[in-house]
Amino acid sequence: TAICGNAPLSIRQVKKAVNFGIQSDLKTGLMQELDAYDRVYVSQDRREGVRAFNEKRQPEFKGA
User: Fold this and answer.
1) Domain assignment of residue 42, given as a range
2) How many helices (H) and strands (E) does the chain have?
3) Summary mean pLDDT of the chain
4) Is the full-model pTM beyond 0.85?
5) Quick check: is 26 in a domain?
6) Is 56 helix (H, G, I), strand (E, B) or coil?
7) Which band of pLDDT confidence, cut at 50, 70 and 90, is reported for residue 48?
8) Looking at residue 13, which CATH number applies to its domain?
9) Number of domains present in the structure of the chain
10) pLDDT tens readout for residues 3-18
11) Is 61 domain-assigned?
């Protein structure tokens, strides 16, 4: 599916945030989401995604 083609690190962080968020209050869930964002923002996969977008090509995610 379309989701499976995304960066593995991003998919893991989204799943973690969703699973954590449904079991916690809003403030705690938002803190978890921010933590997930911080982890993904500095990743090599994010840089590869931006680079691929700018170069109009498919990204090659490594899961890092």
Assistant:
1) 3-54
2) 3, 0
3) 89
4) no
5) yes
6) coil
7) very high
8) 1.10.12.10
9) 1
10) 877 888 888 888 888 8
11) no
